[in-house]
Write a structure and sequence with these properties.
By secondary structure, this protein is α+β, with helices and mostly antiparallel strands. Helices cover 26% and strands 45% of the residues. It has a six-stranded antiparallel sheet, with helices on one face.
Length: 125
């Protein structure tokens, strides 16, 4: 079986509440983590909620990195989804965790697109 991608689901607790509510910081944080983990950034979309909280995604050629924050709880939900084998998704997750000053975290990895190559396209993988 071959997995087309890896999807890390990360729970970040005890984070710095001010950072969780800072859209520009989060945007720079996710961009930096993407680049430093070997990904190619192709776009992004971020939104600041009222009175607080941010949702955002950095689109990478290899898939995406997304975050949803609850500053009032010191909590962030982070997804790092990468395809291929050139990106280090654990590195992206670690960099974001450290940047948000998380005191507690958990990570679950899902292997996406578990396939037995059937087509000539998949057989090349």
């Amino acid at each position: 079986m071959y997995a087309l991608g890896r999807h890390l689901l990360v729970e970040l607790k005890g984070c710095n509440a001010e950072l969780l509510d800072d859209l520009q910081f989060l945007k720079e944080c996710l961009h930096s983590a993407a680049i430093r983990s070997g990904a190619t950034v192709v776009g992004d979309s971020f939104y600041h909620f009222s009175p607080q909280g941010v949702s955002g995604v950095v689109n990478i050629a290899e898939s995406h990195i997304s975050i949803h924050t609850w500053p009032e709880c010191g909590y962030a939900a982070l997804d790092v989804f990468t395809c291929g084998d050139t990106v280090r998704p654990e590195e992206a997750a670690r960099l974001i965790m450290e940047s948000l000053e998380a005191t507690d975290s958990s990570l679950v990895e899902l292997r996406r697109g578990l396939l037995q190559p059937r087509t000539s396209q998949c057989a090349k993988l």
